Amino acid sequence: MIDASTAKPDTAVVLVNLGTPESATAAAVRRYLIEFLSDRRVVSLPPWLWQPLLRGVILPRRATPVARKYASIWMADGSPLAVYTRRLAEAAGRELPGLRVVEAMRYGEPALAAVLQRLRAEGVRRALVLPLYPQYSTSTTASVADVLARSPELPTRLVEDYHRDPGWVAAIAQSIRDHRAANGVGEHLLFSFHGLPQRLVDAGDPYQRQCEAGAAAIAVALGLDDGQWSLSYQSRFGAERWLAPATDASLDALAARGVRRVDVIAPGFAVDCLETLEEVAMMLAERFAERGGELRYIPCLNDAPAHARALAAIARRALDQWR
Ligand SMILES: C=CC1=C(C)c2cc3[nH]c(cc4nc(cc5[nH]c(cc1n2)c(C)c5CCC(=O)O)C(CCC(=O)O)=C4C)c(C)c3C=C
Ligand SMILES: [Fe+2]
Ligand SMILES: [Fe+2]
């Protein structure tokens, strides 16, 4: 008889996040950005044009200031994105007994392709891949799918998105309620999502639609009226037009309207990272304070038990459909 407690799982669940530099140094940021920004899902310019620009102009200017930003949020165990992703995978593992739950990164370490190879070598026969992107985008989720397509040795299934998953919506709504119970209710709730070039949405990327639908579902769960919340996009990169309204402009408009206490949540990020901790909780909070207001940042779900439970339920459902 097989002892279930010692039998090796033949099914893995792989939580995939974007990736992050190994250290808060210009050299590590350069290595990370070269891999990330050389992905044509992220920047689609032809390599003959983009590579000299990236290596000769952008990285020499960007690596040191971005490394300084990372240094301002670095944790004892590393980059917040890496630390929280690791802890979240451990927490999800506790919710999924009998399955092998591991983390992987699309860029940097632990590299998704190597993680899939390792699982196969360990005797795992199939892997459910769950990107930690609640909303589907060609720039993120489809890029994970590209790696799966290049790793045919291990059968995989991809969870494409969970932007309106009831467990996830409930977990986010509860985190907002908890924040309000601890800090009082802000005058306005702003949902700030990572931006995307408008060009990708025009070409059919469902990201914006999913951000809007998810934010609306969270607002409904909280019983908010239309005027009590809004949605904006942060983290613009490059010169082309990105999704609007921009988070900084939305906050400026709220300040100009006399709104003094704004709660900001970033439901596009499964775990806190540079874009939430530095850009929102530090820089945008400072900017809003200069305009006389108080920005109260609501952290990502990170490794909260409710988050692990929501992701575990999504994984279980996807596995049930994969017979
Ligand atoms: C949450 C979903 C994300 C989408 C969609 C996304 C698109 C996207 N991003 C860039 C450029 C950069 N993003 C950077 C950081 C970053 N981006 C995401 C997530 C999404 N990006 C996360 C979680 C992070 C944080 C990583 C961390 O280490 O904490 C950066 C790096 C920082 C910097 O140099 O400013 C860049 C660059 C593009 C071009 C894009 C869509 C085409
Ligand atoms: Fe990004
Ligand atoms: Fe940013």
TrEMBL record:
Pathway, per record: Porphyrin-containing compound metabolism; protoheme biosynthesis; protoheme from protoporphyrin-IX: step 1/1
Superkingdom of this protein's organism: Bacteria
Enzyme class: lyase
Keyword Iron belongs to the record: yes
Any one Pfam family match given in the protein's UniProt record, by short name: Ferrochelatase
UniProt cross-references to InterPro entries, sorted A to Z: Ferrochelatase, Ferrochelatase_AS, Ferrochelatase_C, Ferrochelatase_N
Metal-binding among keywords: yes
CDD domains: Ferrochelatase_C, Ferrochelatase_N
Keyword terms of this UniProt record: Cytoplasm, Heme biosynthesis, Iron, Lyase, Metal-binding, Porphyrin biosynthesis
EC number of the protein: 4.98.1.1
The reaction(s) this protein catalyses: Fe-coproporphyrin III + 2 H(+) = coproporphyrin III + Fe(2+); heme b + 2 H(+) = protoporphyrin IX + Fe(2+)
Subcellular location: Cytoplasm
Entry's family note: Belongs to the ferrochelatase family.
Functional summary from the UniProt entry: Catalyzes the ferrous insertion into protoporphyrin IX.
Alphabetized NCBIfam families for the sequence: hemH
Protein name per its UniProtKB record: Ferrochelatase
Native species: Novilysobacter erysipheiresistens
The organism's taxonomic lineage, starting at the top: Bacteria, Pseudomonadati, Pseudomonadota, Gammaproteobacteria, Lysobacterales
